[in-house]
Each structure stands twice: as C-alpha cells, then as structure tokens.
Automatic annotation (TrEMBL):
It comes from the Bacteria. InterPro entries: CusF_Ec, CusF_sf. Keywords: Signal. The keyword Signal applies. This is Copper-binding protein. Residues 1-26 form the signal peptide.
C-alpha cells in the first residue's frame, strides 16, 4: 500500500499519472500491471530502448470498453503469431484523454503502449481505417 501511495504522489507531482478516484482504484491498476508487463515484453521486446514515442510499434485492436471517468481503455487484439501471443482483451490507463470520449466499443484502433512512470499505459491511439 505504501508503494502505491508513493507511486501516486510521484506520478501526480510529475504530471505523469491521471488522478485516481480512490486508493482502491490505484491498487487495482497495481494488481494488473504484472500481466501488462508480460504483455508489453512480448508485443514489444525493445519497449525500454526507445528514445522517442514515434519509434514504438502500432498495435491493431478493437475497443471493448471506454472508462472516461478513470481514463482507461479496454482493448482486444487478435493473436500475434510473430511474438507467440494469443488473442486477448486487456484494460490499460491512457496517458492523455484528449478525444477519449469519442471512442466507443467496436471502434477499430491502433495503439502504442509504454512504461510511463512504472505503469504500462496506452500513450497514443488512432482510428484504424
């Protein structure tokens, strides 16, 4: 719990974390991070080496849920045979929620993910046409 509070304080002070509505929500994000970390290591093994967000790969996905209040996006991607990953659905916090409320379940998107302040989050998203 102390770690969560320190992460929140540091992230908010640096402007890297969206404010959480409760400690319970922060604890939930902390609990799903191990799976998110495994996911990003498979999808993007070089995720810690990029100097710029522009270098990160785009991952095609479908929006399954939009939590505007908490700044989270639930996405589903098909299997990624190149990295041996099955199709899955996961929720991620988003770095910025500009135009976030325009997304809806069923939208086809591309996302970029990164470790931002110790939290795996969606750093960019765009509609897939």
């Amino acid at each position: 719990m102390k770690r969560i509070v320190l992460m929140l304080a540091a992230g908010l002070a640096l402007g890297q974390l969206a404010p959480f509505t409760s400690i319970a929500e922060a604890a939930w994000w902390e609990s799903v991070q191990p799976e998110a970390r495994v996911w990003i290591k498979k999808v993007d093994p070089d995720y810690q080496k990029y100097r710029s967000d522009d270098e990160r790969p785009w991952i095609s996905a479908e929006v399954h849920g939009v939590d505007v209040e908490n700044g989270a996006l639930t996405i589903h991607h098909d299997s990624l045979p190149k990295v041996g990953m099955p199709a899955m659905t996961m929720s991620f916090p988003v770095r910025e929620s500009v135009h976030f409320n325009m997304l809806k379940p069923g939208d086809k998107v591309q996302v970029q993910v990164a470790d931002v302040g110790g939290v795996i989050r969606i750093i960019n998203y765009r509609m897939q046409h």
